[in-house]
């Protein structure tokens, strides 16, 4: 495997262990070129889940894209990266069919974050729903139940 830091073409596996309840293998790797370590995950891929984009294009589901969005929303929040990783890498297992719309992925991610961390939920929703004003933030927070009606007046 190629090193993501220096591009060295041969890295060494330092440790392997089951992950995601045996559905994946977690490997710690070390680069002999730069000495840095990184983690990879290996999982069986039978039939790739296809994502239907808003413009109608189809592309294979990429859990790394979902994980990046979740990590950004949860930055500096008391949320375990392992929890986010587990959600992203087991997401395909939760989908019934061979296709899912990008909109459905966003809605499932927002539902996950709503239960996990409300600040992260608002961050994710603001990007996903393209909030264009402060009023949209306030509306979403009220919908979330974060504003007491007595404090409004």
Mind explaining what this structure looks like?
This protein is α+β, with helices and mostly antiparallel strands. It folds into two domains: 1-44; 47-151, no CATH class. 41% of the residues lie in helices and 20% in strands. It has helices at 63-73, 81-94, 102-116, 118-128, 134-144, and strands at residues 12-19, 24-30, 37-43, 50-52, 58-60, 99-101. The protein has a three-stranded antiparallel beta sheet, with no helix packed on it. Strands 5-4-6 form a three-stranded mixed beta sheet. A hairpin with a 6-residue loop joins strand 2 and strand 3. Helix 1 (63-73) packs antiparallel against helix 2 and helix 3 (102-116) packs antiparallel against helix 4. The longest helix has 15 residues, at 102-116. The chain starts with 11 loop residues before the first strand and ends in a 9-residue tail after the last helix. Mean pLDDT is 89; it is low at 147-153.
